[in-house]
Write a structure and sequence with these properties.
By secondary structure, the protein is mainly β. 0% of the residues lie in helices and 44% in strands.
């Protein structure tokens, strides 16, 4: 399973970005996809999660109402649309996929065996 993130960059305070996590066909059929981030000196934290095809999403309290996770029709790409960005959102963002996560534990890194390489988001 190969996950490829894109869309990171530098943006001003209050700006928006959209990240993409692409995978080969059928990769996401039975897996939850979650976006994590890791800021300087911080632990990796779960940000937003989706189970492609089931339209059930979960968000960390720190991003709820500002970030939206979605999928494309073919279920080969998961997006993270980020609005109202602040410097506190500066981090490397990773997408991860796994079959073991659910509504109670979607934010646990140990449940995801597949990870992308990460994409940097800098807000200033």
């Amino acid at each position: 399973v190969q996950l490829v993130e894109s869309g990171g960059g530098s943006v001003q305070n209050g700006g928006s970005l959209r990240l993409s996590c692409a995978a080969s066909a059928n990769t996401f059929d039975t897996k939850r996809v979650t976006w994590f981030r890791q800021g300087p000196g911080k632990e990796r934290e779960g940000v937003a999660s989706i189970y492609p095809g089931r339209f059930r999403t979960y968000y960390a309290a720190s991003v709820k109402g500002r970030f939206t996770v979605s999928e494309d029709f073919a279920k080969t790409t998961v997006f993270l649309h980020m609005d109202s960005l602040t410097p506190e959102d500066t981090a490397t963002y990773y997408c991860a996929a796994g079959s073991g996560a659910n509504s109670d534990n979607w934010f646990k890194t140990s449940l995801y065996p597949y990870w992308g390489q990460g994409t940097q988001v800098t807000v200033s």
